[in-house]
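Page 42, continued from yesterday. The earlier attempt failed because a stray header line got pasted into the input along with the sequence. Redoing it now with the clean sequence only.
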Amino acid sequence: MGIKGKILPLPEKLGEAEEYATKVISDNATYQLLKPYSAFFQPSDKRGTNESVFEFFYSNNELNEHRGQWQPQQNGGTRQWAPSTAFVALVNDPLIGGNRNVLVALDNQNRWYGNLYYRSPATDPTYVLRIAELYLIRAEARAELGAAGAADDLNAVRDRAGLTVTTAVTREELLLAIENERRIEFAFEAHRWFDLVRTGRATTVLNFTDVDKLVMPIPVSQLLIDRALVQNEGY
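This time it went through. Structure tokens are written below.
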């Protein structure tokens, strides 16, 4: 159940999130947080490491187009996507980013670019689900439920990043700390928007008021194919 712009998790669903995250985390022969942070995507011959739960594989015959859109011209890319100034400051702060500053680099024009997808040719995997997210899913579920262990799960991810333990204690502090950790940990893995929408914080954090923009428009091509579809409000 929920309201527009916020998903209200049922207690039993939070319990299931904790349960199933624990099943994956407990399989530590298969899934592990690799140290340092860069170990799951560097060096370039690494694919399907113990960090990855689900990823898309690419090859010389089927390249990952994300690579070119992140990389600058000097590396054969277009840099159509670039990290924000705010993110660059956060990830380069040793007290926040820790060793995750490997995610960004400067090109020959002194511009920051994202460096998660960097291989040449572009055979970089796309990371859909990593073990780090299971730790943070369980941390969030435990914080919401008032269960023990939320800070421990958060600290596991922070430790891998070379950071000290969290100072968060209350439910509200823990949830915000987890949100902020996800912002850095999964910076180029398309989580941030969905995290903010599902927790009802998108309008506040991103400073907009039109709640219709919390959902994307249905493509016109699909509306033309299926006349029963109704465009989302606001479009």
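Notes: Residues 1-5 have pLDDT under 50 and may be disordered.
Reminder to self: strip header lines before submitting.
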